[in-house]
Every structure is written in structure tokens, then in C-alpha cells.
Write a structure and sequence with these properties.
With about 700 residues, the protein is α/β, with parallel strands linked by helices. It is about 45% helix and about 10% strand. The protein is built from 28 helices and 17 strands. The strands form 4 sheets. It has a 7-stranded parallel sheet with strand order 11-12-10-13-14-9-17, with helices on one face. It has a 6-stranded parallel sheet with strand order 3-2-6-7-1-8. Strands 4-5 form a two-stranded parallel ribbon. α5 links the parallel β2 and β3 (about 115). The chain binds a DNA duplex (15 and 10 nucleotides) through α6, α11 and α21.
Amino acid sequence: MLRLPVRAVAGASTTIEHVFVSESSTSAEVSPTLEGLNPRQRAAVEHTGSPLVIVAGAGTGKTRTLAARVAHMLDQGVDPERILLLTFSRRAAREMIVRVGAATDRRDASRVWGGTFHAIGNRLLRVHGELVGLSPSFTVLDQGDARDLFALVRSECVNGMGARRFPRADTIATIYSRLVNAQISLDDVLADHFPWCAEHADALKDVFRAYTARKRTVHVLDYDDLLLFWRALIRSPEAGPRLRKRFDHVLVDEYQDTNRVQADIVAELVEPERHVTVVGDDAQAIYGFRAATVDNLRNISNTWPDATIVTLDQNYRSTTPILSAANDLLRLSPKALPKELWSERHGSTVPMLVACADEGAQSGWVADRVLAMREQGVDLRDQAILFRTSHHSDHLELELTRRDIPYVKFGGLKFLEAAHVKDLIGLLRILENPHDEIAWSRVLGSLEGVGPATTRRVLDGVGVGSGQPGDPLARFLAGDVKLPGGAETDVALLRDVLGDCVGGGPDFGVRAQIERLRSFCEAVFPRRYSNSDARLADLDQLAVTAGGHPGREQFLTSLVLDPPERTGDFAGPPHLDDEYLTLSTIHSAKGLEWRAVTVIHAADGNIPSDMALNEPDGLDEELRLLYVALTRAKDYAHVTWPLRFHVRRFARDDRHLYAQLSRFIEPIRKRFDEIATQSEPIGMVEHAPQLAGPTLTDEVDSLLDGLLS
DNA sequence: AATATCCGTATTTTT
DNA sequence: TACGGATATT
């Protein structure tokens, strides 16, 4: 019998599931589906009939219960393909399905439909989208693409009117997404979240209309569309009845982080039988910025008055000292429902609060501690460093590299956002959807001597963006569009490689296509980028990844909906059995756990982020964020904060201020053992003398700066 | 019409 | 820094 190692639960690797899905299904032991569950968990697993709501605090075995419930359904003979499991991330879906497989003898657990709302929406729209007027070969815009399209229509709309100061494309995209996901009027969105844009309400409406219209003519959907069209599909007389019959059971994880549209989808999809399970914890709602609303969970009885509610509050993850700190923290929230997690794990190690002289000392302490814990038998893979924003780990990453401590970072900049990756993806997208104006613009703009005006001319020539019938790619390949002299050889090459991919036949898969398209990149990159060799090497990496997908469409979709989490430098992902430390934003750490967790940069202004303070629920959400961070820890929790805070308003600006401890930690200090680092941390001096402690001048300067601010 | 250059300013979390 | 926007140059 194969026991699922703890590592597979906490581990971030995306390759683990293959191992366990296949092996666990051969297990001959008695079905452990119900084994080891507490009475409430068991009740949740076996519940039938009315809608089920599981209110599950952090570490209370939520994943386990949900997985057992699915396994139980399979044991009862439910067809796995008729179970839909909606999770918050792809990672969570994978883990859940692995667990289902481990908990049942049914070999076909992996056929359960599992994924994010966006991924499942995409899947259903590929099949049924034509019923609501969608081209089956639509491409999906990521956030950057959506911003580019907004920039395009913005310039077209704003030209007409007096060019007063107008919100930037980024801001417009954010407003739009909030409008769509929260399903409230533009005036309300502007009043609540973007008051400085209120005077432009009318012009914004024009931009939004133009944006929507353009998306339709170029056959693209953005993230929000995947949800909107899915809901529209359920509501349509043609597809609705079929969709509602498609699944026998629908289960939704992390329900507290769903938005209005997602809640609509669930509620309407499960009619009329309402075989639905939602799981959530209002104390862990951290996606308000994305228009998620805890009201979906708190007011669940409005949706299903007869819902059965099961509350899980026994924590199996953390020791009591850690839970005491977390419980105290949550009590500081005026809005949180009273919640007291308890545990039978009476550990004696109290969380540690570490005041560091400065950021250098913090990095030094963390690295020391990580190594010390490792000596005590806590593997690097059982340790994580968490932070509020991605760049908070910059300094620490240098220190870890210097000391040869391997790590993997989650959250922050995505591989997909690198310019050269977008270049290649643009080429693939043209092949997939020849109407994709954003992809065309990107590719044409990379040619020598071709700017916005020429791009526009070419697009009009081949009929992209204007809704012309026929195939723009065929017209482009036919070659009757003229381009400036400087671009001639590049254009010829572009025609060649695209033509080869179109006519390549069935053996010419994504990987082969990328390898062919690469020769165009080879020609263009040296002029575009200073480090074109490194960038070309990335494309090879991409080709390998693409080879693992069944086709071009699946590859493109998975890049947008489930992008690689780390920037792809030459190193490549660490090997499965390699030891590595996890660095992660708190958001990306959701649902995961480690034996030792260190939250760094816990200074006020970072946690809570001072940027969140404008939002109505902002401060409270920041508190929940810290709560999520602390409750990731099983045995050891550390919180560190640098006393001296580097103010980097501008690059050259070398000032620093005295930071204050997070306002959330201050009132619960008694739950921590406090220590302070020396200003010159051990191990730092010989390697990095420039990181030595503050001089007297620094001290005086920063004191003065502090008085001025 | 494209590109080079300079200036000012932003600042987070992710499907 | 790094990116967008405006202005100057090719």
C-alpha cells in the first residue's frame, strides 16, 4: 500500500501527480475513504440531498474532506465524468484529484472534471460556444493582451474628444474587470474604487463599448468573458438544459473567493437537483481586489434556504501556540465572524518575532534559520518564506543564491509576460486564430521599419479587425500587401515560416511549429533585444513544454490560464527529488502548508500594504492575508521585520526610515518569543561587507527623514 | 512615419 | 529601475 507522503500534500511541484494517480489506483487495501475522518467530516462526506455548505477553518482537513466526498461518490457508482470540481487554481485541482485517487479503489478518478472556473469555462465554450455565437477557434487574452487592446481602442476613442487627462489603459482595464465581475454599474464602481476617474464616466463607456465590439470582431475572449459566456450559455434556451444535465455533482472549493458571476454560474448550473457542495472560510477571503465577495458564502442561505451547513473547526495542521496567535489575530478584525480553531497538537514551540536591524540582517537571519532548521531535520521542502509582494524577496534571493540554498519562487512576474515569449506566442496565435488583431500587431510591429501606421495599413489590407469575411492569413500569405523596404527580407521569412506551419500537415505539431517559427525570431531578435541568445534559448524551453500538449490550441490556452509560475531562466525547474526552499507571495501560498513558515517584511506599510487602505474592506483583507500566512505553518512560525526600512521611491534614492511593526502583530506580541538580530549578522560580513550595519550618519539622516515625512 | 531621446512618475495581490 | 508620453531627429 502506498502511503501518500506529506510532501505530496505540501509540495508545489507540478509533476508529482502522475506518480500517485497511477500507483494509488492499484492499491488493494480496503477503501480508506471514510477512514480517519472525524464525525463532522464524515457527515459532510456522506451527506446527500440538500445543498451542502462546509465552513472549514484553516487546516481543518477541508481538502481531505472534499476529496473524500468525491471518492465516496465514486464508490457509490457516480460516473467521474459527471462530477465537476471547481477549484481556485490549477494546482489545487491537481492535488485534489490526486487525493481522490488515493482515497478510492476506482481507477478512473482522474476523469473527474477538475479545474478553475476559467479553465472549465474555456473547455465548455470550445464545445458549446457556437450556440451563443462564438467562433470555436477563439483565442484567450491574458491581462497584458487585454491592456494592449484597451490601449488601442483608447487611442481611437480619445482622439475624437479633447485630449484631457484620461485614465491609462491599465486603469481602464481594472475598472472594466471590476465592473464585470462585481456586476455593478459603472457609476458605482467609479464612486467606490476610482473616484478620480468619475468625470470620465461617459468617455469610459465609449471605450468599453469599443473594446467589447473589437473583441467580437477579432474572435478573442478575455478572462472575464470566459465567465460571462459560460453564464450566458447556462441561461440560453439552446444550451442551458443540456449544460444543467451535464453534471450530477458540482463541488466548489474556496467559495469565499468567488465573485458574483461565479456564484451565478454555480447556482444556475446545479438546478434543479442542486447536488452542490461549496467549501469556504470567510476568514481566508483575500481576493476582494478581484471583485470576490465573502457575501457569497455568508449569505448562502439566500441562494439555498435549505442548505445543510457543516462547520469544521478542529485544526490538524498547526500546534496550539501557532493557533493561539492566529486566533488572537482574527479577533482584531471587526468584521470576521467569531472563530476559534483548536488542535490536539500541543506543541511547545512558540512563534518567533524577529526584529532585524535592516533588510540585510533580515535576509541573513532567514538564511541562517533555514539552514539551522535543516540541520534539525526539517527539509528545505518543508520550509517556506512568505511575503506580501513579489519584490519583497529580492534581497533574500540574492542572499540565498550567495549561500547556495536552492529555492523556487511562486507568484510575481510570469514567464509569459517576457517580451520575447509574447513574440513567439503571437506567431502561434495568428496560426490558431487569424483574426487575432493583438497577435498580428505584435508580430508586425517587430519588423524593421514598421510602426503603428504601417501595421494599421497591413491589417486593413488583409482584413483584420474590420470583420471582413475570409481568412486574413491566407491573404497575407498571398503576399499582395506592400511593406517598407527595410522589412522586405523579414517579411519574406515571416511568410515562409507561417506558410510552412499552415501547410505542415498532421505530423507538424506545436513543437515542430515552434521550432520553425524560431528561425523568424532568430532574424528579428538581435535587433530587438540585447541578449537575444538567452531569449532564443527560452524559446527552446517553450518548445519542449509545448511538446507535452496535445495540440496548439491546448498549449496556448494552458499558457494563458495556467502559466508557468516561475521565470524560466537557464536553470530550469529543480529536479523532483532535489531539495528546495519555497518562496511565495501569501496569495500564492493559499491552501498550502509547510512545517516551518517565515513571514518576512512584517512592517506596517507592507502588511498591511498601505496601498490597500483606500479600499473600503482593504484593511480587513490585509489582516486576513496575515491570518492565511500564519495558518500555513505546522510546527514553526516566524515573523521578521526590518527596523530600518529602505525607501526606494526612486532608484537612486538611498534613504531609509524607521519602520514600525505591523499594526496586526503589535497587539498580539505576547503570543511570540521576541528576539533581535545584531546589525551585522553572522555570515554576512565576509561575503558582503557592503551590507554591514548602519553608520551613525545613516542613523541621524534617517531620524531627520522620519521627522519630515 | 519611424525611431531616438528625454522627462516625469509610479509604487500589490491573480484567473 | 522601467515604462509611458511628449518632443526632436532621421
